[in-house]
Amino acid sequence: MPARGGLSEELEIQANTIAANLAEKLGANYKLLHIPDNLDENSLNILKSNKLIREVLEDIQKINLLVFGIGNAKDMAIRRKSDSIVFEKIEKENLKAEAFGYFFDNLGNVKMQTNSVGLTLESFNEINCIIGVAAGRTKAEAIYAVSRFSNNFILVTDEAAARRILEL
Fold first, then answer.
1. Does 3 map to a domain?
2. CA–CA dist 135, 17 (Å, integer)
3. N or C: where does the chain have the smaller number of CB atoms within 10 Å of the terminal CB?
């Protein structure tokens, strides 16, 4: 099941699509989370009260394996179609990373959370097996920042990111 809602982007990189494709390849069942991740708080709360969505959200809090992407804070703010206040905070606080709706500084401190649905930091810290995915030299600072928040995950990356992380 997807651990997050969608970001209104290309179908191929949506959490629902990835979860469904992975389940199909494994011969497993899946559930989908039919809710955008970047709605205002009031809209999110209304949708969360729907029985089907609430059941999926409850199941997400019980997962024991997570595969998640690590993004550059500015890039993810663009993808989330954030307002100028978010970009100002990213600049002012020198935020480096975004993962599951939380923005991190270079020391791994959570400095901002966007309206999102799905996985919470509390449930993240209780998951047994976590795999973080990010590639490319430009993702190195984001990987470093998230690993300062928690180094209890397996990192899947490429040589360019790994070499840049070593430089940091």
1. no
2. 20
3. C
